[in-house]
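Protein of interest.
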Amino acid sequence: MRRPVAVDGSASAPKVRLPSFGVQVLIGLGLGVGLGFWARSLGEASALAEALQTVGSIFVQLLRALVPPLVFTAIVASIAALKDLQNARGWSRRPCSGSRLPR
């Protein structure tokens, strides 16, 4: 059987089909819960418990470091997306289309 050849002439490896992202997340969640229960049953002095503690604390520190710049970027991008400030200010005074509110 001949291997497929890419456009550039190199032999390409057969593609492996992975499950969907949601399934991968659920598998990871299940593995994490299973490892957590297993580490707890081994005791807090086990190497697995210490490794999970270290990985967990690094993950939380990374989240704390990444969230403020993401929020700031989202706010700046939202403000930059306003094309006409006068038009945006006028929207707050007008009722939504189709509403029966008195003026």
